[in-house]
Design a protein that fits this description.
- The complex is a heterodimer of chains A (177) and B (238).
- Chain A has 177 residues and is an alpha/beta fold.
- Chain A has a single domain, classed as NADH:ubiquinone oxidoreductase-like, 20kDa subunit (Rossmann fold).
- Chain A is 31% helix and 21% strand.
- Chain B is α+β, with helices and mostly antiparallel strands and 238 residues long.
- Chain B has two domains: 77 residues, Ubiquitin-like (UB roll) (Roll), CATH 3.10.20; 130 residues, 2-Layer Sandwich (Alpha-Beta Plaits).
- Helices cover 24% and strands 16% of the residues of chain B.
- Chain B contains six helices and ten strands, in the order E-E-H-E-E-E-H-H-E-E-H-E-E-H-E-H.
- In chain B, the strands form three sheets. In chain B, strands 2-1-5-3-4 form a five-stranded mixed β-sheet, with helices on one face. In chain B, strands 6-7-10 form a three-stranded antiparallel β-sheet. A two-stranded antiparallel sheet of chain B has the order 8-9.
- The model of chain B has no long low-confidence stretch (mean pLDDT 94).
- Classes of the chains: A alpha/beta (177), B alpha+beta (238).
- The interface between A and B is medium-sized, with 28 and 25 residues.
- The structure holds iron/sulfur cluster (SF4) (2 copies) and FE2/S2 (inorganic) cluster (FES).
- The site of FE2/S2 (inorganic) cluster (FES) has 12 residues of chain B, from loops.
Chain lengths: 177, 238
């Protein structure tokens, strides 16, 4: 049997959703028999591969790099799962949205520092004017809200998908859970 | 005293025969029968204003959806409280509430004790299809004990009504119109400088979201609202 090609992606989030993923503990072994982890911050692949079956996306779309990545991810994946409140609603990263990017950078790199350092404008990706939930940028197939969604919720969602069902998360999790 | 026969109306709610007094709303009559209709601005013990539109129901013979909390029962009415169409509109209403201001549940004082959150979950809301607006809204922490965070306000006006109808202070009111509406204290003065506020805290208890909360508590414990129907009952001498 061909194993399902699974990827996990970390955009603008705190990695808490990935922690919750690891919290599945020994159930990770069950999954390991059924999936092949082809891309993830947890493994060492540099390029997002072609033909991914399932991808879990943590984090909102906040920078030029996130935007570039998520478009490529969408093109190269069959089922895209928005994992956690940052991906689903924008959550904490989006709290900067009522302010202009320049104001945010000034606050962080000028007003709030004791030793002034230049605002980075090279190598690091430029911030988008607005942080956006994933589905405002590319179509999303499954939404799993929660900050972070529990290991049980993630495991259940994945096993439903592996069984070929579309998970119905009604009542299972919520924003801020 | 048993009501006169003419004061009693017979109607059907979700196919169930119901009799109700003429001055009862569809919501009252339905709840007496154990039928649940979602509500947000309604609170037992306060007057109803029909602000949130979550309690919309279908009534045979009219294509309009009517709010159950402010629509009186009528003889022979046939009411439907659950349908695909109603679910669609209720969801839409909830999504618009989430998109209108800044709701960041994960870091909200009301997380886990919020009526909006519970309604969202009960209606299977896993995301919001409308673009979030991200308005820039103030917080007022000038009061000794309480804070108002306009980012979380859903304009249900429960605070306005409890302050006016129950406490009799009328510190709260609504200013401006449409999307610019905001609850204010006195003549849009800082809450801490209000001449009318008695610091009773009733508004904080009835607020369904994290918009009104007590200082010094990072997380809300469940609010207590039981005092309201009791007060209302005692005053009416029922
Ligand atoms: S008020 Fe309720 S819905 Fe809004 S952020 Fe707070 S917990 Fe979430
Ligand atoms: S402050 Fe709370 S009670 Fe008052 S209108 Fe806003 S949400 Fe309703
Ligand atoms: S509960 Fe009826 S309109 Fe809000």
């Amino acid at each position: 049997m061909n194993r399902v090609r699974l990827a996990t992606v970390w955009l603008d989030g705190c990695s808490g959703c990935h922690m919750s993923l690891l919290d599945m503990d020994e159930r990770l072994l069950d999954l390991a028999d059924r999936v092949e982890l082809v891309y993830s911050p947890l493994v060492d692949h540099k390029e997002y591969p072609e033909d991914v079956d399932l991808v879990l996306v943590e984090g909102s779309v906040s920078s030029e790099e996130d935007l570039h990545k998520i478009r490529k991810i969408r093109r190269q994946s069959k089922i895209l799962i928005s994992l956690g409140d940052c991906a689903v609603t924008g959550n904490v990263p989006a709290m900067r949205n009522p302010f202009k990017t320049a104001e945010v950078l000034r606050r962080v790199y000028v007003e709030n520092v004791s030793v002034e350092s230049p605002t980075p404008n090279q190598v690091v990706p430029a911030l988008l004017a607005r942080v956006r939930p994933v589905h405002e940028v590319v179509p999303v197939d499954v939404f799993v809200p929660g900050c972070p969604p529990s290991a049980d919720t993630i495991f259940w969602t994945l096993t439903e998908l592996l069984e070929g069902r579309r998970p119905d998360l009604t009542g299972k999790t919520r924003f801020g859970a | 005293m048993t009501p006169a026969v003419s004061d009693v109306k017979t109607l059907q709610i979700d196919g169930i025969d119901v009799s109700a007094q003429a001055d009862q709303t569809i919501l009252d009559a339905a709840r007496e029968k154990g039928l649940s209709i979602p509500t947000l601005c309604h609170l037992d013990g306060l007057g109803d204003v029909g602000a949130c539109r979550l309690c919309l129901v279908e009534i045979k013979g009219t294509s309009k959806l009517l709010p159950a909390c402010v629509t009186r029962v009528e003889e022979g009415m046939e009411v439907t409280t659950q349908s695909e169409r109603l679910l669609k509109y209720r969801r839409m209403t909830l999504e618009l509430l989430f998109a209108e201001r800044n709701h960041v549940c994960s870091v909200c004082v009301a997380n886990g004790h919020c009526d909006l959150q519970v309604l969202g979950q009960a209606h299977g809301l896993t995301h919001v299809q409308f673009p979030y607006r991200y308005p820039k809204l103030p917080m007022d922490a000038s009061h000794d004990r309480f804070v108002v965070d306009h980012n979380r306000c859903v304009l249900c006006t429960r605070c306005v009504r409890v302050c006016d109808e129950v406490e009799g202070a009328h510190t709260w009111d609504v200013m401006s119109r449409g999307i610019g509406s905001m609850v204010i204290t006195d003549l849009h003065q800082p809450w801490g400088e209000s001449d009318t506020c008695t610091s009773c805290g009733k508004c904080v208890q009835v607020c369904p979201t994290g918009a009104l909360f007590e200082k010094g508590k990072a997380r809300l414990v469940a609010k207590s609202r039981d005092f309201l129907p009791y007060l209302a009952m005692m005053r009416e001498g029922k």
